[in-house]
Amino acid sequence: MILYWIYIVITAFIFIMLMMEFWKEDDWRKQIAIAMVMVVFILRILQIR
Fold first, then answer.
1. Hey, where are the domains in the chain?
2. 45 contact partners, CB below 8 Å, separation of at least 6
3. In terms of Cα–Cα distance, which of 7, 26, 3, 23 is closest to 38?
4. Cα–Cα distances in Å, from 10 out to 13, 15, 18, 27, 29?
5. Is the pTM of this model over 0.70?
């Protein structure tokens, strides 16, 4: 059970780092790429996939 929570914490940390990069980025193409990666992390945090 502890490994599950460690996995969630690491995934949430990476998601937060991606959010910070998303807001700093000016190029809309890079923002779209970051947004697509963030969708995967949201699904993993919510355990949907």
1. 2-45
2. 8, 11, 12, 15
3. 23
4. 5, 9, 12, 27, 26
5. yes
Q: Mind listing the pLDDT tens digit for each residue in 1-49?
A: 899 999 999 999 999 999 999 999 999 999 999 999 999 999 988 988 6
With residues binned 3-state (H G I as helix, E B as strand, rest as coil), the percentages for the chain, rounded to 5, are 85, 0, 15
- Both tokens of 13, joined, read 């940390």
- Quick one: pLDDT at residue 17? 95
Tokens representing 26 are 């000016």
Residue 15, C-beta contacts closer than 8 angstroms, at least 6 positions apart:
38, 41, 42, 45
